Amino acid sequence: MAISRRKFLGWMGAAGLGATVGKSAHAASNKHFEGFPDSMGVLHDVVRCVGCRSCEAACNSVNQLPPPDESFKDLTVLDQKRRTDAKTYTIVNRFETAAKNQPPLYVKDQCNHCLEPACASACFVKAFIKTKEGAVVYDESVCVGCRYCMIACPFEIPTYEYDKVLTPRVMKCTLCHPRLLEGKLPGCVEVCPTEALTFGKREDLLHIARERIRRQPDRYVDHIYGENEMGGTSWLYIAGVPFSELGMREDLGVTPAPALTAGALGAVPIVVGLWPVLLTGIYAVSRRKDKIAQEEQADAVAAAVATSKEEAKSELEKVLAMKEKEKETAINMAVKKALEDAAKEQEEAAAKAQEDAAAEAQDDSEPKQTEEDS
Amino acid sequence: MSDTKTTTGGTLFTPFNMVAGLILLVGGIVTVLRFTGGLAAVTNLSDNNPWGLWIGFDLLVGVALAAGGYVTSAACYIFGLKRFHSAVRPAILTAFLGYALVVFALHYDVGRPWRLPYPFIVQPGTTSLLFEVGACVALYLTVLFIEYTPAPLEWLGFKRARNIVVKLTLVLTIFGVVLSTLHQSSLGALYVIAPSKLHPLWYSSYLPVYFFISSIIAGLSMVVFEGSLSHKNFHDKMDETHLKEADGVVLGFGKAAAWVLFGYFIIKLVGLAVDNNWHHLASGWGLWFLVEMLGFVLLPCYLYAVGSRDKNIKLIRRTSLLAVLGIVLNRFNVSMVAFNYHLPSSERYFPHWMEIAISLFIVTIGVLAFRFFVTRMPILYEHPDYKDAH
C-alpha cells in the first residue's frame, strides 16, 4: 500500500480535529463529553433476537410492574407495533423484511440511556440523572409532571401515568440501576436465551460489535446504532438491515440534546446584560430629545416674545417720536403764531402810534386810512 | 351591550352572562373531574403526545397574546411615545390577567401542580429551557402585578403607596421587557431540543427569535383588537383623553405591526434558506406552511400597511383579528399540528372536548375579570385626583 501508517494516522488526527472543531462551532463550549469512563451498557444484536418476549417478562417482574393485559407468552401481541407505556419499560417489535423468504426481525425497545440525555437536559427540577454506571435514572420525589422530558426524548421512551390523580410518575427503563449496584445483571440481559443482549462496559461492547460486523460482513450492516446517535447512547444495536427498516430513526444526527439548546440558553446572559443598558440608553435619548424639543420650544417662545417686544418698543418709539414731532410742530406753530401775533400787535401798536401821530398831525381826513391798514 | 348594566344592578340574565355562566358551570364540572380522575379522565394526552391544547393554547397562545403589556409600556415609557399613554393601563391589565391565567391553567396540565414551585425552592434544573420560562413567567407576573397596582390603589385612595409605585415605572418597564424577551423566546426554544419531532418547515434553530418577534405582533394586534372590543362595550368608561388618543393608538400600532410582520416574514424566509427547506414547500405540509405565511403573515402585513396609509381605522381593527388568529395558528402548528408529524394519524393528537372546555373556561374567567376591573377601576380613564400626574 502506498499510504504509510504515519500518514494514515496523521489524516485520522486531522479528521478527528476537524470533527472536534466542527462540533465546537455548534455547541456552547469546546468540550465533548464521551460518557463516564468505564460506564456500562448493553449491546442488542438484532440478528440473534428471536422475539420470545422473555426480556419483557423479566423486566416486568424485576421492576415489580403491574401485570400485563396479555400474557408474555402470547406472541400475537407482536402483530401490532407497540411502544413503551406506563406499565412496560421494554417491548419487542416484529418487522417483516423486504427480502422474500426471510424470517422476520425482532427489535427490543427501551430507554437507550443517552450519554447526554435529552430528558435530563430538559428537566427543570433535575429529576433525571446520568449515573456514572451508565444508567439514566429518575427521581419521582421532585417531579412536577410537566412531561417536557417526553417532548425532548428523541427515542420516544418516557411514559406517564396519566390515570393517577395524586402521584403520577414518569415511567421508563432504569437499566436496572439498583441491580447494577448489587452486582447483578439487568433483568432482560440475564434472561435472554439467545444472547441477543450483552451487558458490559460500553467501550468493550463497541469492540465486540465491530468485531461481529468485521467477521460477518454479509450478516450485518456496518452501523452501530447508538455509537453516535444523539451524541451516543449506552444501549447499542447491530443489525442485518438498515435501522430505518426496524422502526428506528436514522435522521437524529449526532448532536447531543444539550448542544441543541446551548445557543438559546447562552442568549440569556446577553439579553440580561445588554437589554437594560440599551433600553436605558433609548429612554435617555428619547428623554433628551423631549428635553431639547422643550428647550427649543422655550427658546422659540422667548425669541418670539423678544421680537414682539422689540417691535412693540420700536412702534412705541415711532409713535413717541411722531408725537414729539407733532408737539414740536405745535409748539413751533404756537410760537410762530405768538410771534406773529406779537409782531402784529407791535405793528398795530406801531400803526396806531403812527396814526395817532398822524391824527395829531392832520386831524380831519384820517378815518379812511385806518380802515385800509387793518 | 348590556353587561355594563349588570354591574350597576340591572338584570343579570343577559345573553352574555348566560353563555358565560354555562361555560363556567361546565368548566367547574370538568375541573372536578380533572382533579379527581387524573389527566386521563379529561384529556386525550398520550405517551406520544404529552403536550396538548393546554400547552398549545393556554400556555403558548396565552403568553403570546399577553405581550401587549410589555410592547405598550415599552413604547410609551422607554421610546417616549407619550401619545400611547392611555393604552398602557388596559394593556397592562390584560397582560396581568393573561399571565395569571397562564399560571392558573398550568395547574390543570402538570401532574402534580402543588409542586410547581419546586424548580425554584427544591432543585433548579437550570439546563432546561422550561426553567427559564418558569422563572421569567413567575418574575414577570410579579412585575405586572406591581405595574398594575396604581389602578386599584387609586380606586382605594391609597395615595402614597400609589405614588411610590408610579416612581418605579421605568425600572419595572425595563425589567418587564427583559423578562418578556427571555420567556417569549424560550417558549419557542422549548422545541429546539426536538428536531426529530417537529416538521422541518416549523423547526428552526431560530425558533426563539421567531417566537419573540411574533410576540411583538401579537402584542400590538391584541391592543388594537381588545381596544375595539372595549370601545363597543365600555365606551362610557372612557375619558376624553382615552377617546382622543384611541385612533392614534390604532394607527400607530397598525403601522408598527405592518413593519414587524414584514420583518417576521423575512426572517422566516431566512430560516427556510439557512436549513435549505425549500423542497418541503412542494408537499402538503408546504401548502399548510404557505397558508400560514401568506394568509396570516403577509396578508395582515399588507392590510395593516394599507390601513395605516389610508388612516382606515376600521380596516386596521379587522386586520388585528386576522393577525391574532395568525399567532394562534402558528403556536398550534408548532405545538400540535406539525409536532409528531412523523407519526401515523392514529397516533396523532386531537383535543378532548373537555380540554377545549377548560380552555374556554379560562378565557371566560379572563373576560369576566377584565370586565370587573374595567367597570370599577381607573383603567380606561384617568382618576380625577391624578390627572396629568405622569
Please characterize this protein's 3D structure:
The complex is a heterodimer of chains A (374) and B (390). Chain A has 374 residues and is mostly helical. Chain A has helices at residues 5-26, 54-62, 118-122, 148-152, 177-181, 187-191, 202-215, 257-361, 367-373; strands at residues 40-45, 91-95, 105-109, 128-130, 136-138, 159-160, 170-171, 197-201, 235-238. A 3-stranded mixed sheet of chain A has the order 8-1-9, with helices on one face. A two-stranded antiparallel sheet of chain A has the order 2-3. In chain A, a hairpin with a 5-residue loop joins β4 (128-130) and β5. Chain A is rod-shaped and about 185 Å long. By secondary structure, chain B is mainly α. Helices cover 71% and strands 0% of the residues of chain B. Chain B has helices spanning 3-7, 15-37, 39-42, 53-65, 68-78, 85-109, 118-121, 129-148, 150-156, 159-167, 169-189, 207-233, 240-274, 284-309, 313-337, 353-374. The interface between A and B is large, with 61 and 59 residues.
List the keywords.
heterodimer, A: 374 residues, mainly alpha, three-stranded mixed beta sheet, two-stranded antiparallel ribbon, 9 helices, 9 strands, B: 390 residues, 16 helices, 71% helix, globular
